[in-house]
Write a structure and sequence with these properties.
The complex is a heterodimer of chains A (453) and B (319).
Chain A: E1 3-5, H1 10-13, H2 26-51, H3 60-72, E2 73-74, H4 85-98, H5 105-118, H6 135-148, H7 151-157, H8 159-168, H9 186-198, H10 203-209, H11 213-218, H12 237-249, H13 258-266, H14 288-291, H15 295-306, H16 321-331, H17 349-364, E3 372-374, H18 392-413, H19 420-442
Parallel strand pairs in A: 1-3
Chain B: H1 6-9, E1 39-40, H2 44-59, H3 64-76, H4 81-93, H5 98-111, H6 116-129, H7 135-145, H8 150-163, H9 169-179, H10 184-197, H11 201-217, H12 222-233, H13 239-254, H14 260-276, H15 280-301, H16 306-318
Classes of the chains: A mainly alpha (453), B mainly alpha (319).
Chain lengths: 453, 319
């Protein structure tokens, strides 16, 4: 049964505005300015709703048109993202998946060809053709190719050279550089692990490649409970996601403080705005709908697994899933397509991707068979995988493809002799590597994310 | 993403194709393939500069003119990590004076304070010079414009750790907290410095007082409460310090304080007491307190997190 959520009472909500304790500082002044801009959106909506009860609408067609236009051409203002071109592809593809919009086969093939142009002969993907390989566009390219999910797309990943690239950016302490001689932070670990998992690397390689990585990532958790980009840095929504997702993928969730993490994540939801901030005492930003929004069901699933007696108490997500959808629907949509950080900002692909995937998490994270949809029922988005942020099916299909590939390789290494025992053991390996992830998540994500059979 | 036209940035621009000293180089166009996607509408200047950069990169030319060219390319897109990496190779090859590079970077960083690549380049150069003399003033300058700039704090921590520059940092942090008591980055930096010196009971006592004084002044400031929690986590076994915090919270509550972070703190405090208590009547008393606080948080003071407060109550009850 689909359940229709209610909006909050905007009049009663006014008491939730920031209390500055009669002690104004730059933080409280900026906070109030932001709240006033958001209040205007809420007030406008309340009046319009009195005219027409069906105004709370996701502008599907407009967003799809925006994505369809940008998959081909981007304006000059995107010159600053000239080294993030696979990111532009990924943001468009994932946002489109949320909206259940698929691109024609011809465009999909053009995307594959373009990403091959970005691929370095020695492995890994670069920000654009001819640039050096880098972990962030590698993650974006691998995710994009998994979303497309054809044999040609999987082949374009070129698993063997990808793994060589991952080795080339690994640091001895288990952390990862973004590129050879590049900067180190938790993004590196997350991108590397996510790619390695999607191409289903063998257990032995995983153990070696990510030796000490769990400990390094865990050392980025701060006294506030979230993760910083590196040890001692301030807890931050983006790094918090990378941190917890890395620990889940490597089966290292016993190494961090989940209670502290949960509380810190929940406190990022703004009581008036409904959206999330990325750090304590910072402003709301639509992109944290995903970065922090996804952290909450993930950590609840971890806690449910750690303590089976409390598991039933942890089923219901603890953040306000309506308030989050309200913020995105009423304050972050551009009528001509695309979504934004906060009122007054221009639309861009990054915010379009992460606001939509955040809303998708909010709608589906309790149980994918009964989503919580705010406003029109047509606002329902398709689910995303909370760890990889691509459709759950895309994750499963990639695992299956690369598992098949490795057993075929094992067979041909055997000189063509059919070795049933080897085949069987390779299947078992896959089952264990994938189930560690699905078990963590199964309590919160019943349908969409169960990976094991 | 700004829509600054490039001409504004470089008024006396002469295209590379008109420069005699570049006449021997054939520009190399970007190979996007026959059917490109996410194709950016580059300005003519952007395309030309990068066509020449690609030619230089392909020829592996490390020269003065190549170094200048990277500067033009980086002005157009300071996020191009390939150009930065290649620039480092040229600097090394030509044995350039890296102090000049720092000066160049001062300017670039000032205009691109939220860019990963410029800060990384800075770090590599400082490592090579092995001299942090300009790093604290530089980050201080950037933090003057934006006291929460993550990259600036990261660079500052790097310099402090690597060159042991902790001594005056607490005074700096204190100044920032005085300017904006809600600056969470400054509070985080405070914790970073204290961790280095070690949480002795003397330091803990001083810091608890510092924090509670600031909570009294601005009781809805999450940064200070989180910091207090952080300090308390370092008080394992230090009974005096723990009871100082307990007394502070209970007094605040008794005098009518119903601040969200105070209530949350008291729930944790009473949960600990409840778990440790053997006496049934006392246990019930702690539970009643917890129940009351969870209830007023979920219905009134913090209803956006009502599911969480209801969970806290149920969890404590089930234990």
């Amino acid at each position: 049964m689909t359940q229709n959520g209610d909006f909050r009472d905007f009049t009663a909500l006014k008491k939730e505005k920031f209390n500055d304790d009669n002690f104004a500082t730059i933080t409280s002044i900026e906070q109030r300015t932001t709240e006033n801009a958001i209040e205007k959106c809420f007030d406008r909506f309340e009046q319009l709703q009195a005219l027409n009860a069906h105004t709370a609408k996701l502008y599907r067609d407009e967003h799809c048109r925006y994505l369809s236009k940008y998959i081909e051409r981007l304006p000059q203002s995107y010159e600053c993202l000239d080294c993030s071109r696979p990111w532009n592809v990924y943001w468009i593809l994932n946002a489109a998946s949320c909206l259940n919009h698929t691109f024609p086969e011809k465009i999909q093939n053009n995307i594959i060809d373009f990403l091959i142009k970005c691929r370095n002969p020695k492995g890994g993907f670069a920000g654009g053709p001819g640039q050096y390989p880098h972990l962030a566009p590698t993650y974006a390219a691998v995710n994009s190719l998994c979303i497309i999910g054809t044999k040609r797309a999987y082949e374009a990943i070129d698993k063997d050279s990808l793994i060589n690239f991952l080795w080339s950016v690994r640091a001895p302490d288990g952390s990862f550089q973004m590129h050879v001689d590049g900067e180190v932070d938790v993004r590196g670990a997350y991108c590397a692990i996510s790619c390695a998992k999607l191409v289903n690397i063998s257990e032995e390689v995983e153990k070696e490649l990510f030796k000490n990585t769990v400990e390094w990532v865990a050392s980025c958790q701060t006294y506030e409970g979230g993760f910083g980009g590196a040890p001692d840095l301030e807890a931050h929504g983006g790094y918090a996601f990378c941190g917890i997702a890395s620990l889940v993928m490597l089966g290292g969730t016993h190494c961090f403080n989940s209670e502290m993490f949960l509380r810190w994540s929940l406190y990022r939801q703004m009581r008036f705005e409904g959206g999330f901030q990325g750090r304590t005492n910072k402003l709301v930003d639509g992109c944290y709908s995903f970065w922090v929004g996804a952290c909450i069901p993930i950590v609840q699933a971890i806690m449910a697994k750690e303590n089976i007696y409390d598991a039933h108490l942890l089923k219901k997500p603890f953040f306000d899933r309506r308030a989050l959808q309200e913020y995105i629907l009423l304050c972050c949509q551009k009528p001509n397509g695309g979504l934004i950080d906060k009122p007054g900002k221009p639309q861009d692909l990054y915010h379009t991707c992460y606001t939509l995937s955040g809303v998708s998490i909010a709608q589906h994270c309790e149980n994918s068979m009964s989503p919580l949809i705010l406003g029109c029922l047509t606002n329902e988005l398709l689910p995303v995988h909370p760890i990889h942020n691509i459709p759950p099916m895309a994750v499963v299909k990639a695992y299956m493809y690369f598992n098949q590939l490795s057993s075929e390789q094992a067979m041909s290494n055997d000189g063509g002799r059919t070795s049933s025992s080897r085949e069987a053991s390779s299947e078992t390996t896959t089952a264990t590597t994938t189930s560690s992830m699905s078990e963590e998540l199964s309590s919160s994500f019943d349908g969409g994310v169960s990976i094991s059979n | 993403m700004s829509d600054n036209s490039d001409d504004e940035l470089m008024p006396d621009w002469i295209p590379y194709s008109h420069r005699p000293e570049w006449s021997d180089v054939t520009p190399l166009a970007q190979d996007d393939g026959p059917y490109p996607v996410v194709q950016i509408a580059y300005s003519e200047k952007f395309s030309e500069v990068y066509d020449y950069f690609r030619a230089i990169l392909a020829a592996n030319e490390k020269s003065e003119r190549a170094l200048k060219l990277t500067q033009d390319a980086l002005q157009l897109n300071p996020a191009n990590y390939t150009v930065w990496q290649y620039r480092r190779e040229i600097l090394k090859d030509l044995k350039k004076d890296l102090h000049m590079e720092l000066e160049y970077l001062d300017n670039i960083i000032e205009n691109n304070t939220k860019n990963y690549q410029v800060w990384h380049h800075r770090r590599v150069i400082v490592d090579q010079l092995n001299d942090p003399i300009r790093e604290l003033p530089l980050t201080e300058n950037v933090l003057k414009m934006d006291p929460k700039n993550y990259h600036a704090w990261q660079h500052r921590q790097y310099a402090i750790k690597k060159f042991n520059l902790y001594d005056d940092e607490l005074a700096y942090v204190d100044r920032l907290i005085t300017e904006d008591i809600r600056n969470n980055s400054a509070w985080n930096q405070r914790f970073f410095v204290l961790k280095h010196f070690g949480f002795t009971s003397e330091i803990l006592g001083r810091e608890l007082q510092y924090t509670t004084t600031r909570i009294k002044r601005v009781p809805n400031n999450e940064s200070a409460w989180n910091f207090l929690r952080g300090l308390l986590s370092q008080c394992e076994g230090a009974i005096d310090q723990s009871s100082y915090v307990n007394d502070f919270c209970e007094e605040l509550y008794e005098s009518g304080g119903r601040f969200v972070f105070l209530l949350a703190f008291l729930i944790d405090l009473n949960e600990r007491r409840y778990m440790q208590c053997e006496e049934e009547s006392k246990k019930a008393e702690f539970y009643k307190k917890i129940e009351h606080m969870c209830t007023i948080l979920s219905t009134d003071h913090d209803s956006i997190r009502q599911n969480y407060w209801q969970y806290m109550l149920q969890r404590i009850r089930s234990n």
